[in-house]
Amino acid sequence: MESFLSLGQSIVQSRDFTKKNVGIWSDFFETPKKDSGLENNVIEGRLSRFLTTAFRRPVETETLRRYVSFVTAKRADGVTFEDAMKAAAAAVIASPRFLYIYNADSHGEDAEALDPYSFASRLSFFLWGSIPDEVLLSAAGSGRLADKEGIQEEVQRMLKSKKLKRFCDAFPLQWLQLDRMISSTPDPELFPQFYFSKYRLSMHMMLEPLLLFEAVLLENLPVTQFIHSDFTYRSQQLNKAYAELGLEVVSGKPSGPGRLAFQRTSTEGMRSGGVITNAAVMTMLSNPERSQPISRGAWLASAIFNDPPKPPPADVPPLPEDAGIETETLTLRERLGVHRERADCRGCHEQIDPLGFALENYDAVGRWRSTYENGRSVDSSGKLFHQHEFTNITEFKEAILKEEVIFVKAFAKHLLSFALGRQLTPWDTVDIEDIIATTAGDGYKIQGIIEGVVMSPAFRSP
Fold it and tell me: Is the pTM of the predicted complex or chain greater than 0.90?
């Protein structure tokens, strides 16, 4: 608690903590005018509003008195009004009531449902990544969050708020593991097009799946759009990087370091579109020199199908550089065959290899290729779910869409886990099945799945 208090004090004592940067400065920290009435009444009124917002529920009378007494004691010691309120604010943001979501209706672990204010907090942190606003707190206080219609109204209102941008950035970043893109450094000699001027294509690549996710959410499209979509978002630099796909280059000036200009672009065929074949995913799942089918397969198993493989044995050898055959004449599939010969590796490789090699037509920065540098043809064939054979990425995506329920269920699990801030348990399976059942008739539109997550017993339980 002392560490949290020190952190709170460092925030309010920062030289950047000024009227220009603090939105509630005039309403909370600024010294009241002489005609504002008794100072103690002003202090109590300001603290009441501040504590209600910070603790995300009406503040208890005893708690309010403690904070009022704290500020008035500071004032009696000669501390300025501004500094006294800063000290109170530091204490508030170090309080467990601010730091934790807790259920005020229960003193144990046997509560069946969150109280309305705790539910409002969970909902707000899920969709807005922040505390509830006054409207949501009012809905909690009036009982509108106790029935399905009231919850649906609030969810729809929140989905129309600009604050939803935080969810559009946070969830897909976690779901797709896009933070791995930050550390991707393709070899400059092998992939010079990844680097332009003094900048890299990393941010351009990361924004493509993020903007697609945002469009699917705001337009309330089916989540199967993440497997394949007939549109995407590209900057001029990114479109040039995709040039070998035969896509038309977006017109306009190149994006500079301070502004990234993206345009909505139609996709041609199924080589591009969706999240599994964009340059960000292909690049972050490659090493600096070449693609990595194992990493790509493990990512597909984890992110797309929510069925992550077991960790590899500790003594797995590196790819053979000299195994009695000139490895330069082998395909990557042939070189990786040695791992499948190990009994302790075979099970996982049977799961992830067909997935990873389905993406093998994309090189280490996501460009299309039909052959390797040694002239050998790329073999991207395989069998999905032990029943759907495919020979290229188009057939692979079509196979996934034939089993769309598997993907939708995996997506719903990722979403529910994000909303709860924990890993799912077998007890959550019933909730997932209910979400799938209730959204099937609407084509698995994303807002319906979000609403299903919010209405699930898991989300509404402590």
Answer: no
